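Field reference: sequence -> structure
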Amino acid sequence: MTGCRVKFVFVTVAVGSLVSPARCQHVSSAEARSKLNGSAVDFGSFRERFQRMYDVNSEEFNRRRLCFQDATKRHVYLNSFPAEPQSATYGINPFSDLSQKEFRDLYLGAVYDRAPLFSGLKVEGLPAKFDWRDRAVVAPVQDQLACGSCWAFSVVGAIQSVRAIGGSQLEQLSVQQVVDCSSQNKGCNGGSPSGALNWLKQTRVKLVTQSEYPYKAKTGICHFFSQSHGDVALKNFAAHDFSGQEEAMMGQLVENGPLAAIVDAVSWQDYLGGIIQHHCSSQYSNHAVLVVGYDATGEIPYWIVQNSWGTRWGNQGYVYIKMGGNICGIADFAAAVFL
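Structure field:
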């Protein structure tokens, strides 16, 4: 079973009573007109902002318009929790005309693999704030588009950062190569970071640059390169469960580079910005991301996480997750790579 079909735990129970996730998938024109008469201006602004081209007289338009209304009702609930400092806010974003099921099926493609509990030593004397972007070793935010390839983006993101930390020029490496060739995974239909890492370690496949093997947002035929071909091969990786030990996870990030992680991102469909402190479960992860830093200097310490949904989502493509309490399952699985 792919991660995009993982059971909907927190938000379905909490939000489902307010808005039915499947409701916007089947709607008559008359029902759409009667229920959405007051939201035409907002929906029109949304369509213009995100270049939605569906015909105003089509069934698609009516269905998407009702999905949009359902999203605005979810936002009321998600924003109803106490406003703690820098709390996350939820509202209109590129996913607001998708049903919750469509969003899960299209964008949440990570399979959750259990990792052993971390049993190593904590790193002493960690800085209160650390961000690998400050060292110019984190590549720009990418957009996986309508392809469940987050698992590949997280792994490739970690590898290209660690390569740059080692002194090489920062380059975008090929996510499409991993999508097409990682035989343990299912391309755009989902996969696991650990499966991709195991494949890279066992085969010693050298990742080529994105310019040489560009991203197409669909599963294709694997292109093979000779063993003498340049670029980077994975030597090893270390994946652990840091739940209850997020300080140790901080040490791994500082010592080894950005970490490939798996999270519960169901509520992220509506995320606008700020620090996520609610609406996320652990042990039901469905989306892979790259943890690039943390900031524990303020009242609410948080992880700095690069996503793969483009820069028009979240904090210019990033999401902040409260440290401590394993929010969104951020500590359930985190992997460091070694080149």
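Note: The chain has a mean pLDDT of 88.
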